[in-house]
Amino acid sequence: MASYSASLTDFCICRADYWKSQPRKFCQYCKCWIADNKPSIEFHERGKNHKENVAAKISEKSIQKAKQEERMSKEFAAMEEAALKAYQEDLKRMEREATATSSSETPAKKPQKKAAKASGKGQTANRRAGLG
């Protein structure tokens, strides 16, 4: 038994004084952890599974981008259509107002101008006379 305990003490002397974990890196495409050193990373990135996952992620992003662009173009078309409709309504309203004011202003403006001139003449005459 003495030889067994001696070999156990020799084993304890040879190992490190403290335990240090190896840094790990997470692959966002494969959802797995790999050792954070250059050979392990390169080996993982050259692998078939990793390459397929990267290609799938790229195609997924391009599909999402295409869908987003299509959605935005539909929204812009709807905005443009609403703006054109509002513009047409504004033009119609302006035409109605222009025709309504031109037909009502024509007879009403002439007497008002004469009345204003007559009242203006009366005021200056009153001022001259010292009444106003």
Automatic annotation (TrEMBL):
GO molecular-function terms, A-Z: RNA binding; zinc ion binding
Main location as per UniProt: nucleus
Location within or outside the cell: Nucleus
Keyword Iron-sulfur listed: no
Cited SUPFAM superfamilies: beta-beta-alpha zinc fingers
Top-rank taxon, per record: Eukaryota
Any one of the GO CC terms: precatalytic spliceosome
Identification of the protein by name: Matrin-type domain-containing protein
